[in-house]
Structures are given as structure tokens and as C-alpha cells.
Amino acid sequence: MGLAADVIPAHTEYLLARVDKSDLPRERLRRLGAATLKTEELIAIVLRTGTRGENVLRLAERLLGDHGGLGGLARLSLAELTRVRGIGQAKAIELQAAFELGRRLQFATPDERRVIHSAADAATLLSDMGYLEQEVMRTVLLDTKNRVVATPTVYSGSLHTTVVRVTELFREAVRQNCASIIIAHNHPSGDPTPSPEDVAVTREIVKAGKILDIEVLDHLVIGAGLKFVSLKERGLGFD
Known about the structure:
Blueprint: H1 2-17, H2 25-32, H3 39-47, H4 56-66, H5 69-74, H6 78-82, H7 89-105, H8 119-125, E1 136-142, E2 148-150, E3 153-156, H9 166-175, E4 180-186, H10 196-212, E5 215-222, E6 228-230
Parallel strand pairs: 4-5
Antiparallel strand pairs: 1-2, 1-3, 1-4, 5-6
Helix pairs in contact: 3-4, 9-10
């Protein structure tokens, strides 16, 4: 056992010595810019090191392949990431920090914020909700020009009128002085057909928005993939 442990690092150093350093992700980024790198190369830079028997680029490729690409990887929780072979707590934290920076960049400056023109625009923004295993409710906070300010999650778990507290749902919108909001929740079953409870919740939210002078533009039910239903377009809960 002791001999094998001594031999492996030397063999690894030999293999690395034969790699053209200009082909390494960090060097390629320095020479060519981040936009030219493949997704797995960018992930490899964040991870920095691989594992015994698997270099960092192979590790990044496996992560993306096993979890449906960048979107699937970004949706993993910290606990789920740490259970992945080759990803300890430090690497999991670094990945989550990088993904969160990417999300926050969407709302960094007013001129670069996404503008919502339709229910489809909002559904695309929230498309990751179609892959969640539990029901969650988010609000899309909008300014006076329908630019996205933030998309906070306000509830997790089974949603119905006795669970959703309107004051909590509007709290962040009031704090950020938003002109309007869009409500969205997912159906883990994959079927976005609104339930009677969805319609009842919508009706209460719309009433509260009128009192607070924050317009509720829509309530979306997100299903599997890119399927969604706009309750506003169907006239459900919007009298």
C-alpha cells in the first residue's frame, strides 16, 4: 500500500508534464478570454483540482453529464453537491457561490435588467422551477418599466389559501418599492393545469395587490420542461 501511494503522485506529475500548458483552461482563458472557453473548462477553473485518477477537466465533464448540463448542476443544493463523488464541501461551496453570482448579475444594473413583455418571458425566466421536486412559490418583482428587480422564493411546500400569507408575499415588493409583481409556482407532477386552490390563492393575492397599490400582472403555474399556464390569460382569479 505504501509503495502504491508513492508511485501514483509521480505518475501524475509525469502525465501533467506532458500536457501543453497552453491547452489548460486557466491559460486558455488568459490568452483567449472567458467567452471562448467551453462550459466544462469554466467549471474546471472554479473547481481548481481533480481527484485521484480523474483530472479536473474530466471531473467537470462528468458533473455536467450526470446532472443535465449547467442548469441541472446549478439547481443542486449544497448537501446534494457534497454527496457527488469528487466534490467535497469546499468545492460545493465554490460552485454555489459562482452560480449565485451569475444569478445576481441578471439584476445588477437597471439598464441591463431583463424586461418582461409577456407571460412567456416570465416563464422562461423561471424555467428552472419545472425541474424542482417540491412545490415553491416565487415572485417576479418589477419596476415601472417592467424590468426584473429580483425573483425571491416566498414559499416552499404545499400551497393553499391557509398557508400563503399575503403580507409575507408582498413584503419584498414593498421593501424594494416595486410597481408590480408576477406570482409563479410549480407543479412537481409536471402538469401545469391550475387547481381550484390555485385560483383561490390568485384571487386573494390580486385583492391584496389592489390594497397595496402593487399590480399583480399574472400568476403562472410552471410544469415540466417549458410548459406553463397563465391564470391571467385564462381569466382565473383575475376578476
